[in-house]
Here is the input.
Amino acid sequence: MAEREIDETSGVETTGHAWDGIKELNNPLPRWWLIIFWICVVWSVIYWVLMPSWPGLTGHFAGVRGHSERKNVAAAVAALEAERQERMARLLSVESIDAVEQDPQLLEFALNAGASLFGDNCATCHGAGGQGAKGYPALVDDDWIWGGSLADIRRTLQFGVRSGHPEARLNVMQAYGDLGVLSGSEIGDLAEYVRSFSGNSASPEAISRARPLYETHCVSCHGAEGRGDQALGAPNLSDAIWLYGGERADVAQTLRDGRGGVMPAWTGRMSEEQITALAVYVHSLGGGE
Here is the structure.
């Protein structure tokens, strides 16, 4: 039997191994470490028996408990979907924003669902915050072409504007210049007159010449004072909010070429419950009636 070697410095027995003159000491592992190690070994064996573990040729060992995270996730998703459907059904039954606001949980659910739908489907045109852009209505003010009640917004989302859907919102801004109805000078005078409704300075002579033109071609939709008509989708001309720009050149272009933006119909792309949640969110952006 080889004689045991004791390290002179530490007084600990060596293993007999040495590298570049450095000897390996035979220090035992701490008892606490060994206890934990064997507990882990025993626990691993128990886990192999209880839980899904070893693969086989035709499947895997399912474990004595029959545990399956896949089934647990499916059950959790089904429960969440059931809760969501219950709230969606409640949303579909509301007729006014007041009914939604009286139920804080339903309101929170609608706003969260609506915000997600808005980001996926509406923000491209109306902006992430609903601020709109030239040719795309702002949803954060109180100027609504077709009405800003929950029912009005929901209908606009359902059927769109000039979308081709049989129930789509539909109005026509005539191209008075392209059709030869008005001359260039008449369009210039009428642009001056229209801009005067919102407090812009205008030539008195142009206003005098344009007044009969406005009464002939514009009053039936926009009204004598230019306040518009939501039932017809005729914009208010007196509030300094201009969808296509309020400069003289912008207004003249509208009169000359007409306007006809398209709002898609979301019926068939979204469920009625999703459309209602989106309508609640749009209403909440700041300008709902």
Notes: The mean pLDDT is 90.
